[in-house]
Amino acid sequence: MVDHLELDKVAPFLIKLFEIVSSPASDNLVCWSEHGESFKIVDRTKFAQDVLPFYFKHDNLRSFIRQLNIYGFQRCQNSSGRDRTMEFFHPMFTRNGMRNLKDIKRGNQSKKNDTVEDGVDEVEQPQAKRPRVDYSTFKTDVARLQKNLEEFEHDLKQHTLQVQQKLAYILSALDDTPGAVQQPPADSEQRGSSPELSAGALL
């Protein structure tokens, strides 16, 4: 058994983590490795859905892994790329080393409070500095675009006027054309018999 005074020095996250890994009820989802010096998350989806909410009141696996990183846990590389098991290691976190939990310290991470209501240490993400925006450049670009738009509208009006003038000229020319179109004179053979045929007829 571990002295209660020693547990008071251990972060709540580490105590809950030890309980999660050591619980036989969830061995099919998370368990100690064979040598007991690391632990494995066997089924990521079910672990996040069934185990995390029971201990931490959330099902965010990424948040859980961030907490591991803060306390210095390292992820072990899988021997096979097809193996989706996640294995984590810390020299002070072992199956028979609950007394060593007090020696696991939080890394140098900025934080607002040591703990939150669900027992998971809260990590405050540093806010990225917003780049300064030069609004004068925007105003210049807007003015330039507005001027280009006005010039385009002016050119469009001029082009439309020219088209209308040409169309009016064509319509006027069509109105001046006489309605009756003279047929070309008929060929001499169509207007009368040839002299040779007339002379033959007389003979």
Automatic annotation (TrEMBL):
GO MF annotation terms: DNA-binding transcription factor activity; sequence-specific DNA binding
Domain HSF-type DNA-binding: 9-107
Region (Disordered): 105-131, 177-203
Principal location: nucleus
Record keywords: Coiled coil, DNA-binding, Nucleus, Transcription, Transcription regulation
One Pfam family here: HSF_DNA-bind
Keyword Transmembrane helix included in the entry's annotation: no
Protein name: HSF-type DNA-binding domain-containing protein
Basic and acidic residues compositional bias, start-end: 105-115
Localization per record: Nucleus
Coiled coil: 135-162
Protein's organism: Emiliania huxleyi (Coccolithophore)
Record flagged with keyword Nucleus: yes
Superkingdom classification of source: Eukaryota
GO CC terms of this entry: nucleus
Family: Belongs to the HSF family.
Lineage summary: Eukaryota, Haptista, Haptophyta, Prymnesiophyceae, Isochrysidales
